[in-house]
Amino acid sequence: MRALFFAIPFFIMTTIRTRFAPSPTGYLHIGGARTALFSWAYARKHGGTFILRIEDTDVERSTPEAVQAILDGMNWLNLNYDEGPFYQMRRMPRYKEVIQQMLDAGHAYYCYTTPEELDALREAQRARGEKPRYDGRWRPEPGKVLPTPPEGIQPVVRFKTPISGSTSWNDLVKGQIVFDNSELDDLIVARGDGTPTYNFCVVVDDWDMGITHVIRGDDHVNNTPRQINILKALGATVPQYAHLSMILGDDGTKLSKRHGAVSVMQYDEDGYLPEAVINYLARLGWSHGDEEVFSVEQFCQWFDLDHITPSAAQFNTEKLNWLNNHYLKLTDNERLAEMVRPRLEVRDIKVSDSPALSAICGLYKERVATLNELADAAEVFYIDLHPEAALLDAQLSAEAIPAFGDLMQLFTTVAWDAASIGAAIKEVIGKHGLKMPKLAMPLRVMLTGQTQTPSVDALVALFPREMVLARIEKNLAKKTA
Fold first, then answer.
1. What pLDDT, in 10s, does the model give residues 66-89?
2. Is 257 annotated as contributing to ligand binding?
3. Which of 129, 158, 252, 324 has its CA 20 to 30 A from that of 345?
């Protein structure tokens, strides 16, 4: 795909075209991921085209690592794009071409005001109680005599913003929004070194790429009238806009690093499934009746912009954990094992063939919220376990010790399946007049170091027979020593 191309005439457009355009100055965070999801889903719903654009003109802050983090995050969430990724830095000749066209047409002009002059201007305006803004001193107007351009000053290029009337649009989330043009000063579209500015690049990109719907965060609302005015000056069709409200943290404040994940990929590291994160993001500010759980396919069928709330959405970690547990329970045990294995290996735990990791995942997946918790549960099956002495002392009573001797004898010969193991346990507690917890609880501790596990017969059946006998014998020896 060529990074440079000319504008697509709107009249030949036959499909919805949306875009996700992150700046690679940081990682793909959860708010950006929701914007990408909604843009992607809207294109999918209408059989349209979804474009990925990397807005990397902030050379000082953009990094290859951040670009890769965006691509990794999109890939993990399975938000496949139809065109791109396009990089703004590779489109500089196109931007400069359009700037020259605007200068030639009188829609832009050179401004020689220095940064020091602008600072002084703004300070004086604040002192008078006015809104700080550029005063148009280099703006050409009929009958206006401009100063002589000073030597040694590289001028910026400013867009001639309409000075009367208003700019409005029917926001597909927030409704009608109106800005008085008198509140908008003449935007810089090219810096003194010739590099174009953010708002200008966005306009040219959306025009060239035939974007029909711009879905983005509401922090861009103030940029929208400026972009609309430039599009109109270029004779381009103005896309429809939908501005998504911010996401708040669990505590009701603006979502930030202190609320959890910095990057979408942190959710992968924390043990969440991408389908759970997608399902959760879909419900952050959008709804379809009372539906809480749905597939990606259902989401794309149902998604619309009419049911996006204009008020802020609130992140709820408890609900995300609930959803993740739901998807863990639905996930094939072999796939779970493939995802849990590297989480064990990074802890220097070697996963053996017995017990099968997939079987462990199958037994525990209904009891955990994340893959990391599943790895925690699986870990005890592959390490040299040493239960806490205090815990063992609290659970293993003197009356149960003889029962464990009989249990070991039965475990030596019994068929190694949950039903036979369960029958052996019941036989021993009946013989010794014990209640089930008197034997089951210390047995859990001996095998896993924990008191809370799945049913004890299914748990025991997962371990190799020799390991069960060895762990019981080792812990009995500690108790009777």
1. 999 999 999 999 999 999 999 999
2. yes
3. 324
